């Protein structure tokens, strides 16, 4: 049995003989007020998260990981750039970019003595639908999430070349349209920005006058960070119930900062953590494969088996689903088989279409029992409903996912033999 390594608790008072330090809670309140002057965030939780992120950037070496901060919106003019501008005034050594190559970013962050805070605007141009993937940049962003992370490069050593690991650990905030790659999203605190409503007003940000105000708060954050550095390093903040794994990694530095500040910040931070983690789960459709499995579980609705033709019809008819236009064309039986073939059954066989008899015809299709193991492993849980009578073939599925009364495949109207469905084989 594995146990959690012991880590020092976070103390709330300075060590004996230490100089009196600034009230952390009051300082974070001031930083929040600075944001509220110029930013309209979608929730109170968003203000809390952003303020804690600003402060954590001054304490990078105290944490095992640094959460990415992602300001995302479906439309332009939603305040993402302005949010990054205000963050820029509050964090140490900011570098702002809208287009940076992997090699330039690597060289910028690999010097630990002058580690910058990277602010990457318009990141949808890098990872959006029209982009080419940018796997090297994505790998660099992900590697820089952990303090132990790094990238390897071949460097010249005299007449030879040797492989050397370079550190790339750095704080990173981003702004962009749409979503980011799943691996980045899972490492991020996501703020879903919106255009300001007519009744939402902010001050106009003027760099010449307002930037020095932010810098004054930045200097206070830096001094406060130095005063709590020894106490906060190695702290193990208590996580809210239900926050674990990657979500706990993301929020651990922010909760540690809140605990160090004291006052109302520990409670606000945990409330914000729960709200934003749950919102991320609700918006997370996972990979395309997980979305397919989840939608299949919904359309099966307890049925023992469905033909491929019926599955395709139901999937492409779903609202708010990608199946009618998947990379420019609708999902078909061949692509369905290919996607499901990446997953295995409880017997460790790949999920494959099987013959299903319908009246006097046989068509290819899928059995719920073959999908049950993948549903249990990859799909989010669904609310339980009153149990219904289950046949032996559906017992395993019903035990995992109580659902409504099944729709029997036998009740489906068989396709006309003169116009067989794809994959239909006639018999008799």
Automatic annotation (TrEMBL):
Which Pfam families does the UniProt entry name for this protein? DUF3631 (PF12307)
What range(s) does the DUF3631 domain occupy? 192-378
Which InterPro entries does the entry link to?
Answer: DUF3631, P-loop_NTPase
Looking up SUPFAM superfamilies in the UniProt record yields:
P-loop containing nucleoside triphosphate hydrolases
This one is known as DUF3631 domain-containing protein
The record lists the organism as Kitasatospora terrestris
